[in-house]
């Protein structure tokens, strides 16, 4: 038997770098924390703890509710990995499910599941996709008049500047148009 690795040289490093790149484009840690928080929430209501010859059953009347909350948290964590655009919904839903698990599931999986879920949900809500590092900086347009110093451009108004001589009211309710602000039905 030889001690050689069957994989091509550098394949592990290449796969590790691919995973790192994939992980960097989505809220990976938020999904992981939410999934880790879901497991104690769904496990503890069905657990039997053996202490010597004494069996301590932690079954509660809300065992089904705990199972549903735990499964939903695991599904939210997985969906954060593969559908990053739902990060706000999944984060808020995870936080709410974690809060609901406090009275339903033995203090939220003995607070462990609750804390993991709360931190993961907050990370999901706070996560934002990174910008392109190769993007060119925007050209600043000199804006003259109006009190703005030349060379300083306001990012909100540089693209959509009012045209000189044209009315800027698009609602049709301006007194200059002869309207008094009321809509006519006929």
From TrEMBL:
Residues 161-186 are annotated as: Disordered. Pfam families: DUF6114. The keyword Transmembrane applies. Keywords: Membrane, Transmembrane, Transmembrane helix. This is Integral membrane protein. The chain crosses the membrane at residues 24-44, 56-81, 88-104.
